[in-house]
Amino acid sequence: MSDLHYQMINAVTKYDISKAKRDEKAGRLVNIYALGHYFTAVENVERHVKTGDDLRNALVNCFSGSLLKAVMRAVKLEPPTSSELQGLYVRLQELPDVDL
Questions:
Q1: Whose CA is closest to 62, among 53, 25, 96?
Q2: At residue 43, does pLDDT exceed 80?
Q3: Cα 63 from Cα 25, distance rounded (Å)
Q4: Residue 97 — pLDDT band, cuts 50, 70, 90?
Q5: Domain limits of the chain?
Q6: Do 68 and 59 touch, CB atoms closer than 8 A?
Q7: If 16 and its partner were Cys, which of 10, 11, 35, 99 is the partner (CB 3.0–4.6 Å)?
């Protein structure tokens, strides 16, 4: 297991615990499936990196918001920009239409 894998798994696990505590305290339901989705996103990041994609780009394409901040901090990258925090769906809408 690589250091990158360990750092990302550790970051998403800590994030999930923190989010579950906040949700429980606020009286909201806790998403018991979230951690599995986070682990899948970690696997996707690793797949992107293995195929030659830049780590930052891979993280931005697989995570968003405060979870992206947490993972970037864990792998010692510069904090995400505001457009990176918005998530892929929002960024895709900003791209011009292209006829294929």
A1: 53
A2: yes
A3: 25
A4: low
A5: 3-94
A6: yes
A7: 35
